[in-house]
Design brief:
heterodimer; A: 442 residues; alpha/beta; five-stranded parallel sheet; 11 helices; 25% helix; B: 541 residues; Rossmann fold; four-stranded parallel sheet; 46% helix
Chain lengths: 442, 541
Amino acid sequence: MVIGGGIAGIQAALDLGDRGHDVYLVEKKPSIGGRMAQLDKTFPTNDCSICILAPKMLECFDHPNVTVITNAEVKGLEGSAGDFKVKVLKKPRYVDEDKCTGCGDCAWACRLKERFPDDFNMGLGKRSAISLYFIQAVPRVALIDDEHCLMLTKGKCGKSPPCVDACGPKAIDFAQKPEEIELDVDAIIVATGYDLLDPSQFKEYGYGVYANVLTAFEFERLICAGGPKEGHLVRPSDGEVPKTITFIQCVGLRDRGNYPYCCSVCCLNSTKGSILAKEHYPEIETYILYSELRAVGKRSQEYVDRARDEYGIKYIRGMPGELLEDPETKNLIIKYEDMDSGTIERMEAELVVLNTAPIPGESSKELAEVLGIAVDEYGFFSPKDPLGAPIETEKEGIFLSGYAQGPKDIPESVAQASAAAAEASEIIARKSSRGDDEGEKE
Amino acid sequence: MDEKGFEPQILVFCCNWCAYASADLSGAARLQYPPGVRIVRVMCAGRVDPYFVLRAFERGFDGVMIAGCHLGDCHYLSGNEKAEQRVLMLKELLGVIGIEPGRLKIAFVSAAEGGKFAKEVTGFVEEIKRIGKNEIKVEKPKIELDDLDTIIADTAVYYCAECGKCTSICPVSEVKDFSPRVTVGNAIFGFDTDVEQVAFDCLTCGRCKDVCPAVVDYPEFTRQVRRRMLLKGYEARPTHGNLFLSSARIMAQTEIDGRFRRALFEGLKTSSKGDVVYFTGCSPLYQFLFKEVGCSLDNPLERIGDDVARIPRDAVFLMNKAGVAPVILEQEKCCGHDLYWIGDDENFETLAKYNASLMTEAGAKRVVCSCPEGYWIFKQRYPEVTDFDLEVLHISEFLKEQVEKGTLILSPGEKVKEPRKKVTYQDPCRLGKYLGVYDAPRFLLEEAGFEVAEMAHSREIANCCGGPNAWVGCGSANRMMQLDRLAEATATKSEVLVTSCPKCQAHLKCGQCGELPAGRDVEIEIKDLVTILAEAVREAK
């Protein structure tokens, strides 16, 4: 079993499936894809993120050996390596997964059409009470939002719910109940990824107070052609294209009061964001305010050099202590100390992007308890040995991969996922060499 | 009290022109006067700073005499008149802080009056013999010096990553050559002198601490550096003649006469035992302090003293309106906040223990104060050095609670026809950044019908009023900060700048005085929260 359907989980499931093992891929969200599905491009090659990911998502879903279980969470575990019994709670979608074709007619028909913040688009877009999680969602099945749907909250939606009327294949089923599934597996790979820190606690940056302060993921959705603004980089306050964008690094990171580690991605992520902004609108000035530039990994420093030299992106060492909003223009006046000159500077930016901390998943501690494995002081899953056994846990048969184990980028996550898959096959191989393989899923 | 063999130690400040010459003459004439008299020559009696007097008492002198020319004969026209005013002010202050006012005397002697000099001095010594010995102990405790490394480790300075966030928003860095980041670096490199040189530049407003990713506690670092300097014998760079710090140190050793505070609350309902204590604090002393600063009756600075001194009365008035007759501690001493911040831990602890037991003896469960500094020190530091465990409330929190309970009505009602003024609010550092009280004062102002406009820097990012921390090191940089803050306040187009800290009020008002740089708009009324609320309640009545 693979827990978490992001790029790491997908890679591990595909590897195991290709090797002939049966795999369950359990994902909490309504679709697999994870954080990578929300990215517009990837560094350091500026490849379209979803273009790389979507084929893998589909391959995974269609793979004869892989069973994808979405909208579901692991709630219990018994047994040991080679003989785990896992309890999975599948939350109701209120839509029959076998019947729904993913046409989206229900979302158009919904009485509460486009009323609620769309969490896939980081709240920048709006979704109806019934909708596809996002356009490339896998499985391509709609989902009803049980917090808002009138049928589910009030038991009544006009004379008859318009989504039911609009649905051709009659897939909507308000009677669905949470389902507890018990699965027998040999090994488990944990690939639950990360959450993002809410930057509104940093009063000096004014996130949530000033309209034109975004997080990096909001920026990503904004500039993405598949995003709510179809790739038009416009500022929230007035819908105009900003002339200057400033990226602020390490928000909540390398911060002893919050998360002291380096996330290992935001230097390059801002570099990417700046390049994208320049490619969309060459006249935009982009600045990156950082404390230390950490361009680690293959082709990373070259990427930064190219951004600086070819695109004219300005890197400034010095973190801002405060942002003030100009009440008229809604521009942001950023105060920082330029560490090269030691002078206090003011910069006016029309849009500010905060690179907020990727943090261990909210429910990772709970999952760790269920699985009987350890987390570190931040909440990342602890490996058995950080050097010699970075993907094994103290519990035999449970492996780690991706950001849930600790900060890393996409290629590292993929490599680690493949390694975890190899370790998992070893458990199965050991078991079949003992001759007690009963064809259990992995 | 006339002890056997008690020979009073008397310090006499003599002006160069008359008094010193008369002392000389009395010597030349072989006139006898008691041997415990020490003479210090100053150019003019007006030169005698009130601090000289307090310092003399701190150092154990039994009496201080200032001797100058006869009134009208001053070689600098009015120096002796100023000295006389000062002595009147000082006598009042001495009464409050527990020193018999008779220990201070002014005499006017001409150069020809050698006999009069000897007579005045002898008479004064007799008077002091009657009053008795000054019981203030002079010795300072001997303490091992912390080296800078201990301070660095204690305040997380080692973690500084040089990101520059602190300096970019430091209100002092904005107006003078000062950088918390550089200072922290100097400390790590062991450049003690550089660190000590700027130890009194920091206002401890705490903005740097709030944004520091390394969680360096720069204000505490500053405090500990100051303590180290104090132990090395370096005197804090005092402002206002060091009246407050000196008074606080004296109070740590004297017995307080309750008459002053009893008279202060005349006409208001107070009690001697009960659940709620109102801690008056030092704001009533401002009336003496600012008389000193101005030294002339038409000086606007003097009104600052009176405006600040009325805060406790306004606070108790509002408490009375809510049906609460608070306990007043007639013999309360300085809360010790300022001594704590210059690193005088010993005197701070003495004061803390005294006040804590006074409050406990009164049977109190809660203590209310209108000064954010007292509020912070009771809440954060008293429990560390005493067994103080009372609930501490700022007056704004207490009044908000009363409004919510329905026992206090602030809303103007129908009698006040005109809509209330637009006001803006200055968040005091100890109340806001240190303890997170932002909403209660605004709630009260809105409840009373005022429209609250926010300055560009408000709440968590509020800037300092520009007041020097703990009455040390005020200078032109402070003035620039005051002017900047006033500019933000006037930009809100509010009629009143409200604050809930006596020091914010005094320092912002000080910024309005004197000659202003061109183009500076400082015209705005400044009031304490309880004053504006008390006026509103009186108006609605």
